[in-house]
Write a structure and sequence with these properties.
173 residues, alpha+beta, 2 domains, four-stranded antiparallel beta sheet, 24% strand, elongated, disordered N terminus, transmembrane helix
Amino acid sequence: MTAVINSTASLGQRGPIGVPVPPTGWPIGSYATYAEAQRAVDHLADSEFPVQDVTIVGVQPMVVERVTARLTWGRVLAGGATSGAWFGLFVGLLLGVFSTGPLLSPLLTGLVTGVLFGLVTAAVGYASLRGRRDFASTTQLVATRYDVLCEPRTAEKGRDLLGRLAFAGPANR
Protein backbone atom coordinates (compact mmCIF):
# COMPACT_ATOMS: atom_id res chain seq x y z
CA MET A 1 0.00 0.00 0.00
CA THR A 2 1.33 3.46 -0.87
CA ALA A 3 0.27 6.86 0.46
CA VAL A 4 0.90 9.98 -1.58
CA ILE A 5 2.10 12.86 0.57
CA ASN A 6 1.59 15.51 -2.14
CA SER A 7 -2.16 16.09 -2.32
CA THR A 8 -2.11 17.59 -5.80
CA ALA A 9 -2.35 15.43 -8.88
CA SER A 10 1.07 13.84 -9.01
CA LEU A 11 3.58 14.44 -11.74
CA GLY A 12 1.35 16.19 -14.20
CA GLN A 13 -1.41 13.58 -14.22
CA ARG A 14 -4.85 15.04 -13.85
CA GLY A 15 -7.99 13.19 -12.90
CA PRO A 16 -11.46 14.16 -11.76
CA ILE A 17 -11.36 16.27 -8.62
CA GLY A 18 -11.30 14.10 -5.50
CA VAL A 19 -10.32 10.91 -7.33
CA PRO A 20 -6.95 9.56 -6.16
CA VAL A 21 -4.33 9.27 -8.89
CA PRO A 22 -1.44 6.86 -8.27
CA PRO A 23 1.98 8.48 -8.50
CA THR A 24 4.19 7.92 -11.51
CA GLY A 25 7.81 8.62 -12.23
CA TRP A 26 11.22 7.23 -11.51
CA PRO A 27 12.60 6.98 -7.98
CA ILE A 28 15.48 9.41 -7.50
CA GLY A 29 15.84 9.07 -3.72
CA SER A 30 14.57 7.05 -0.76
CA TYR A 31 14.56 8.29 2.83
CA ALA A 32 13.76 6.91 6.27
CA THR A 33 11.83 9.99 7.43
CA TYR A 34 9.56 12.55 5.83
CA ALA A 35 11.88 15.33 7.07
CA GLU A 36 14.76 13.83 5.07
CA ALA A 37 12.62 13.57 1.91
CA GLN A 38 11.44 17.14 2.43
CA ARG A 39 15.06 18.28 2.84
CA ALA A 40 15.95 16.51 -0.43
CA VAL A 41 13.16 18.27 -2.34
CA ASP A 42 14.17 21.57 -0.74
CA HIS A 43 17.71 20.96 -2.03
CA LEU A 44 16.29 20.35 -5.51
CA ALA A 45 14.31 23.61 -5.28
CA ASP A 46 17.40 25.52 -4.11
CA SER A 47 19.26 24.12 -7.14
CA GLU A 48 16.54 25.55 -9.42
CA PHE A 49 15.35 22.04 -10.34
CA PRO A 50 11.77 21.88 -11.75
CA VAL A 51 10.19 20.60 -8.52
CA GLN A 52 6.76 20.40 -10.16
CA ASP A 53 8.12 17.12 -11.61
CA VAL A 54 8.68 15.71 -8.11
CA THR A 55 6.38 13.77 -5.77
CA ILE A 56 7.08 12.49 -2.26
CA VAL A 57 5.46 9.09 -1.71
CA GLY A 58 5.06 7.47 1.70
CA VAL A 59 5.47 3.72 1.22
CA GLN A 60 3.76 1.15 3.44
CA PRO A 61 1.84 3.54 5.69
CA MET A 62 0.96 2.52 9.20
CA VAL A 63 -1.17 4.03 11.92
CA VAL A 64 0.84 4.67 15.08
CA GLU A 65 -1.04 5.29 18.32
CA ARG A 66 1.11 6.68 21.11
CA VAL A 67 -0.31 6.37 24.61
CA THR A 68 0.10 9.68 26.42
CA ALA A 69 -1.56 9.13 29.81
CA ARG A 70 -3.68 6.87 31.96
CA LEU A 71 -7.26 8.09 32.30
CA THR A 72 -8.78 8.43 35.76
CA TRP A 73 -12.10 9.88 36.86
CA GLY A 74 -10.30 13.01 38.07
CA ARG A 75 -8.50 13.55 34.77
CA VAL A 76 -11.68 12.93 32.75
CA LEU A 77 -13.78 15.29 34.87
CA ALA A 78 -11.09 17.98 34.86
CA GLY A 79 -10.88 17.79 31.07
CA GLY A 80 -14.67 17.94 30.76
CA ALA A 81 -14.91 20.91 33.12
CA THR A 82 -12.15 22.75 31.26
CA SER A 83 -13.62 22.26 27.78
CA GLY A 84 -17.08 23.08 29.11
CA ALA A 85 -15.75 26.26 30.74
CA TRP A 86 -14.23 27.47 27.46
CA PHE A 87 -17.43 26.76 25.57
CA GLY A 88 -19.51 28.37 28.32
CA LEU A 89 -17.34 31.50 28.29
CA PHE A 90 -17.75 31.73 24.53
CA VAL A 91 -21.55 31.40 24.76
CA GLY A 92 -21.63 33.85 27.70
CA LEU A 93 -19.60 36.36 25.73
CA LEU A 94 -22.00 36.07 22.79
CA LEU A 95 -24.97 36.52 25.12
CA GLY A 96 -23.26 39.49 26.76
CA VAL A 97 -22.59 41.21 23.46
CA PHE A 98 -26.24 41.02 22.46
CA SER A 99 -27.73 41.84 25.86
CA THR A 100 -28.43 45.32 27.18
CA GLY A 101 -27.29 44.66 30.76
CA PRO A 102 -23.84 44.22 32.27
CA LEU A 103 -21.45 41.71 30.66
CA LEU A 104 -20.56 39.86 33.90
CA SER A 105 -23.92 38.15 34.42
CA PRO A 106 -24.09 36.37 31.02
CA LEU A 107 -20.40 35.43 31.31
CA LEU A 108 -20.87 33.81 34.72
CA THR A 109 -24.06 32.07 33.60
CA GLY A 110 -22.32 30.71 30.51
CA LEU A 111 -19.29 29.62 32.53
CA VAL A 112 -21.28 27.75 35.18
CA THR A 113 -23.58 26.13 32.61
CA GLY A 114 -20.61 25.18 30.44
CA VAL A 115 -18.71 23.59 33.33
CA LEU A 116 -21.76 21.56 34.40
CA PHE A 117 -22.49 20.48 30.84
CA GLY A 118 -18.81 19.55 30.30
CA LEU A 119 -18.72 17.52 33.54
CA VAL A 120 -21.89 15.60 32.71
CA THR A 121 -20.85 14.94 29.11
CA ALA A 122 -17.38 13.72 30.09
CA ALA A 123 -18.73 11.54 32.92
CA VAL A 124 -21.37 9.89 30.72
CA GLY A 125 -18.83 9.27 27.93
CA TYR A 126 -16.21 7.79 30.26
CA ALA A 127 -18.72 5.68 32.19
CA SER A 128 -20.09 4.23 28.96
CA LEU A 129 -16.64 2.78 28.16
CA ARG A 130 -16.77 0.65 31.34
CA GLY A 131 -12.98 0.58 31.71
CA ARG A 132 -12.27 -0.66 28.19
CA ARG A 133 -10.11 2.32 27.23
CA ASP A 134 -8.50 3.82 30.31
CA PHE A 135 -5.85 5.78 28.45
CA ALA A 136 -5.41 8.86 26.31
CA SER A 137 -3.43 8.72 23.09
CA THR A 138 -2.47 10.50 19.89
CA THR A 139 -2.61 8.89 16.45
CA GLN A 140 -0.33 9.49 13.47
CA LEU A 141 -0.10 8.11 9.97
CA VAL A 142 3.56 7.38 9.17
CA ALA A 143 5.31 5.45 6.42
CA THR A 144 8.09 2.88 6.47
CA ARG A 145 10.04 4.98 3.98
CA TYR A 146 9.56 8.02 1.78
CA ASP A 147 10.47 7.83 -1.90
CA VAL A 148 11.06 10.88 -4.06
CA LEU A 149 9.77 10.25 -7.58
CA CYS A 150 10.48 12.36 -10.62
CA GLU A 151 9.25 12.62 -14.20
CA PRO A 152 11.55 10.65 -16.51
CA ARG A 153 12.50 13.80 -18.50
CA THR A 154 14.30 15.29 -15.46
CA ALA A 155 14.98 12.21 -13.31
CA GLU A 156 18.67 11.88 -14.19
CA LYS A 157 19.42 15.49 -13.25
CA GLY A 158 17.41 15.09 -10.01
CA ARG A 159 19.25 11.89 -9.10
CA ASP A 160 22.59 13.64 -9.69
CA LEU A 161 21.61 16.58 -7.48
CA LEU A 162 20.44 14.28 -4.67
CA GLY A 163 23.62 12.24 -5.03
CA ARG A 164 25.67 15.40 -4.47
CA LEU A 165 23.52 16.19 -1.42
CA ALA A 166 24.19 12.73 0.05
CA PHE A 167 27.91 13.02 -0.78
CA ALA A 168 28.12 16.45 0.90
CA GLY A 169 27.11 14.88 4.21
CA PRO A 170 24.87 16.13 7.02
CA ALA A 171 27.06 19.15 7.86
CA ASN A 172 26.37 20.83 4.50
CA ARG A 173 22.63 20.30 4.50
